Amino acid sequence: MPRPPPHHHHHLSLFILLLLLLVLSFTSNATTTQQFREAPKFYNSPTCTSIPTIITTTTELCSDEAVHVAMTLDATYLRGSVAAIFSVLQHSSCPENIVFHFVSSSSSSDVLRSTISNSFPYLKFRVYPFDESAVSGLISTSIRAALDCPLNYARNYLANLLPICVRRIVYLDSDLVLVDDIAKLAATPLGDRAVLAAPEYCNANFTSYFTPTFWSNPSLSLTFAGRDSCYFNTGVMVIDLQRWRDGDYTTKIVEWMELQKRMRIYELGSLPPFLLVFAGNIAPVDHRWNQHGLGGDNFRGLCRDLHPGPVSLLHWSGKGKPWVRLDASRPCPLDALWAPYDLLQTQFPLES
Fold it and tell me: What is the residue range of the signal peptide feature (predicted)?
């Protein structure tokens, strides 16, 4: 009569099985297992000039009637990006005239492309693979790991990545929703010289973005001489890509990043190089277009209120993202304004 197998083998194989399941669940979460519902189709109002329906060539991508929107796409923020796209289309008077330009890391661009096509079958868009190695060597570590993500720097390279015929673009972060027509934002006048427009905040402590090393070095601190420099948030910008190319601004930003690697002249992520190059020389945008900071306090996780005045765009910049807080059943009051744009299909029916 054969002896029963020793008991510990059974435990071991069970342990290995559990470990495998755990590893599998982690790797599948890293790629996009998120399933999104299909958004309804949005139609142009009768007053819109129509642009070509299907984008097959670069020429059609370049229509002057189009509103061009640039965003980054990655697995971590995909749920936010999908909500942002949905909100843009829903509040647009000419949704069929919006062309999206998505920048994603080369490794995941195919998966992300199909996710977007499935949720928005009628969307005019193109995905541009971004070689993250180009920028990863330039990134200095900052307070928050999220700010060190190479894709955070893709906005520096839009002028090189997008077709040369795309002149003006609205750049949007993935943690925001619009509640107004993006065409109004896209039409922001840039004047004779400005390369970009963004809402400015002149009461923010501008000096705190740069280190004592920067301010104590005259050849560096003189950068801001004669410029009325204010903080602006790079999550919502209108950019003239033609002026950007003409002025070779990607190189200018990269030079500051290279200096930062050598002597640490600023603290936070991808914003300071933008401030160094553009602060004081940007066209103004009404604050209604970037009600930012709704992600709350980076240290204490406090909920934020809206700034006084009208609202066209809600931006959950900061540490707390609305989808994370909603999933954890610990939402801030304003997260309820994000929820209607969430197209994620829940795996299980939620208990009422």
Answer: 1-30
